[in-house]
Specification:
Number of domains: 1
Shape: elongated
Number of helices: 5
Strand content: 35-45%
Structural class: alpha+beta
Number of strands: 7
Order of helices and strands: EHEEEEEHHEHH
CATH class: Mainly Beta
Helix content: 25-40%
Largest sheet: 6 strands, antiparallel, barrel
CATH architecture: Roll
Amino acid sequence: MHPDPKFRWEDRAAMRDFVTEIGFGTLFAATPDGPRAAHVPVIFVAEDRIGFHVSRGNGIARHLDGATALFSAHGPDAYVSPDWYGLEDQVPTWNYLAVELEGRVAKMDRDALLDQIDRLSAEHEARLAPKPIWTRAKMHPGTLDKMLGAITGYTLEIQAWRGTRKLGQNKSDAARLAAADGLDASGKRAMAHLMRHLPL
């Protein structure tokens, strides 16, 4: 994560909400075949534990059980032109939000995998209202069993939380807001909003 303490994000509840809202990220692990990454949907299955699943054919899958891994979720990001600050001798930068969760991975049994899939779909189906909520009850049992045979579920017990909110906190309010205006004009409205309303 970014080394500047001005950008450090330490509010675990806010980071947890951020990961829940994003619901997707990249899992990294060292393997005998070299470093590997998997792009996975995640859900909190306990206060300090995320659940996820990967295709059994994914090269990382056979190395995860018992491994230490790093999950990273990214939010809005944007290139920031130095011209926007209205100050001399500035350089380009990139603003972003990110959370890293590091911990021990354990393989799930079938029941836990079903629960993880149910939680994940319920979380995201609820956001699609007024669409009727999809559940696995709509599937034929044989089809579900075949699909479960193609994936493996895991949990990551979080041992370290690291967050970065790089939103121009190292600039004066006037310079930061001027850069937010530049981002807004270039279509990066989510980042502009965050820079105007720095999260607590």
